Automatic annotation (TrEMBL):
The gene is htpG. It comes from Evtepia gabavorous. It is found in: Cytoplasm. It comes from the Bacteria. Molecular chaperone. Has ATPase activity. Belongs to the heat shock protein 90 family. Residues 24-179 form the Histidine kinase/HSP90-like ATPase domain. GO terms for cellular component: cytoplasm. Transmembrane segments: none annotated. Residues 1-350 are annotated as: A. Its main location: cytoplasm. Gene3D superfamilies: 3.30.230.80, 3.40.50.11260, Heat shock protein 90, C-terminal domain (1.20.120.790), Histidine kinase-like ATPase, C-terminal domain (3.30.565.10). This is Chaperone protein HtpG.
Length: 568
């Protein structure tokens, strides 16, 4: 039989698959199953208008058959099937693959390869990561004969007519022999296959059926004696492996808090309930469902470099990316969850995903939603919010600094600071709402603890005037305020600043007089502290305190300390 050649591009991709060193070869199953599901989608759609199809929605299924002896794994569907021509065109070319284009444009091909395979899969060809031969037997809906397509890799493929009674497609993969690096046998074992199906294809809307083997206790014989020991037997049973209906596709009113929490814990491997579950069902121009969680504790690797932010991205029930970073801004990097939208293509590359307008709109909406839910939590359940703040508050500050304040409008409303008001944490909004009419600025003092802050001599004057003072106890806090620029149109000012409060002419005169009266003392102090301080002067900010240190210029003492620490 004549062997046909693949087009050049397909050959490259196939070569890449066959020699793949990629460690997540298991995703081939997701690709093959999603093709089966697509094919069923097409026939199911036909069936809506074409009575001759003779199938109802319940009749559609995907069947997975591992055969240990023959070393084959078959994925069979009763979808629309392929004609000879379609086989030639669809399995012999790779024209529409966006990921391949991406690869061509990338300089560092090795990294790009891993990226492509890891994030998006490459469709049908990924079967060659685990199989040294792939056979496709298909009968198209309305077609006369069935066709068999077969390939052992880059050197080409054959097509010949064959026997198949029912419409649909069987993809038969001859699984490779085990190597030192890879245990291919697991692709022939029902148990590990069922795990893969649950992991990657749980939400495919058609049943994925597989024969599972169970150990079952034999019924106790009637004449069993005292010393009867239960006997077991192996039984085989066809099971639907996938759950078919993802929790985020169900109406909110029908999902209990328990179910949200359980799903979170099993899906994201946490043993604690999340602080917040957010379920979004958006309709209209941009249709998507999202299920988002704010964890109750900081993940182990959160502040290390191997932590990856992102939401799981599904397209019509098929997972296409495990952690899509573009769906989450850095200040919400702690959020875990899932986005499901019908309008993102399965094989879209990361580059293209980044520029996807649809995804940008979704990301924006999600950001707004997370923010409003957190603001609501702060108002309704302060204790819980403070638990959240203790865990993730620092992330807001880092993200604010990293973005040079560009995200200030989102973050401003979520920050908490210690305050002289009852020595409690306050939000900036609460502070501003409490300001008496005469107060124009938001006061702060820097110290290494709330206790010290409340005793800083610099703060006394402002507190005496009846104004609230924020206690900045974290090194970064003062920079955070600078990044915020202001809060609700009120500027921030350090209590140590000479013009923190308006100065009267009488005060000015009295300071000038004191400078003259005590010139000898000031000179003495200045001489004694030479090299330690740049200037000793009379200050109007002190009340009962005798002396304090302050910085001249725009950078406060605490900031200077902070930057010095950073330099080290
Ligand atoms: P994609 O799914 O993105 O189109 P694939 O490489 O996964 O790319 O599949 C290539 C094409 O092969 C599909 O578009 C489809 O036309 C055809 N195909 C693959 N598997 C099947 C199947 N089980 N039934 C019918 N057609 C299929
Ligand atoms: Mg596909």
């Amino acid at each position: 039989m004549e062997k046909k050649q693949f087009k050049a591009e397909s050959q490259r991709l196939m070569d890449l698959m066959i020699n793949s060193i990629y460690t997540h070869k298991e995703i081939f199953l997701r690709e093959i199953i999603s093709n089966a599901s697509d094919a069923i989608d097409k026939l199911a759609y036909r069936a809506l208008t074409d009575e001759k199809v003779g199938l109802n929605r319940e009749d559609f299924k995907i069947v997975v058959v591992p055969d240990k002896e023959a070393r084959t794994l078959t994925v069979a569907d009763n979808g629309i099937g392929m004609t000879q021509e379609e086989m030639e065109n669809n399995l012999g070319t790779i024209a529409k693959s966006g990921s391949l284009q991406f690869k061509k444009e990338t300089e560092n091909a090795d990294d790009a390869e891993l990226d492509i395979i890891g994030q998006f899969g490459v469709g049908f060809y990924s079967a060659f990561m685990v199989a040294d031969k792939v056979t496709v037997i298909s009968k198209a809906y309305g077609g006369e004969t069935a066709w068999k397509w077969e390939s052992e890799g880059v050197d080409g493929y054959t097509i010949e007519p064959c026997q198949k009674d029912t419409v649909g497609t069987d993809v038969i993969m001859s699984i490779k022999a085990n190597t030192e690096e890879e245990n291919y046998d697991e692709y022939l074992a029902p148990y590990s296959l069922s795990n893969l199906i649950k992991k990657y294809s749980d939400y495919i809307r058609y049943p994925i059926r597989m024969e599972m083997e169970h150990s079952r206790q034999k019924p106790k014989p009637e004449d069993a004696g005292e010393d009867y020991k239960p006997e077991y037997e192996q039984v085989k049973e066809w099971e639907t492996i996938n759950s078919m209906v993802p929790i985020w596709q169900r109406p909110k009113s029908q999902v209990t808090k328990e179910e949200y929490n359980d799903f979170y814990k099993s899906k994201f491997g946490d043993w604690q309930d999340p602080i917040l579950s957010i379920h979004v069902a958006a309709e209209g121009n941009f249709e998507y469902k999202a299920l988002l969680y704010v964890p109750g504790q900081v993940p182990m690797n959160y502040f290390s470099t191997d932590f990856k932010k992102g939401l799981q991205l599904y397209s019509s029930g098929v997972m296409i990316m495990d952690k899509c970073p573009d769906l989450l801004p850095d200040h919400f990097s702690f959020v875990q969850g899932i986005v499901d939208t019908p309008d993102v293509s399965l094989n879209i590359s990361r580059e293209m995903l980044q520029h996807d307008r649809q995804l940008k709109v979704i990301a924006n909406n999600i950001e707004k939603k997370i923010k409003s839910e957190l603001v609501k939590l702060m108002k309704d359940d302060r204790e819980k919010y403070q638990q959240f703040w203790t865990a993730f508050g620092m992330q807001f500050k880092y993200a604010l600094m990293n973005a040079y304040g560009q995200n200030r409008d989102t973050i401003r409303d979520l920050l908490l600071f210690w305050s002289s008001k009852e020595n409690k944490l306050t939000s900036l909004k609460e502070y501003v709402d409490r300001m008496p009419e005469s107060q124009e600025k938001i006061y702060y003092v820097c110290a290494d603890s709330v206790e010290h802050a409340s005793k800083m001599p610099q703060a006394e004057r402002v507190l005496k005037a009846g104004y609230e003072v924020l206690y900045l106890t974290v090194d970064e806090d003062e920079i955070v305020l600078q990044m915020l620029e202001n809060a609700y149109d009120k500027p921030f000012v350090s209590v140590a600043s000479e013009d923190a409060l308006p100065v009267t002419d009488a005060e000015k005169a009295s300071v000038e007089q004191a400078e003259k009266d005590h010139k000898a003392l000031l000179d003495f102090a200045q001489e004694t502290l030479k090299g330690e301080v740049s200037k000793v002067r009379i200050s109007k900010i002190l009340q009962s305190g005798a002396v304090c240190l302050t910085a001249e210029g725009p950078v406060s003492l605490e900031m200077e300390k902070y930057f010095r620490k950073m330099r080290r």
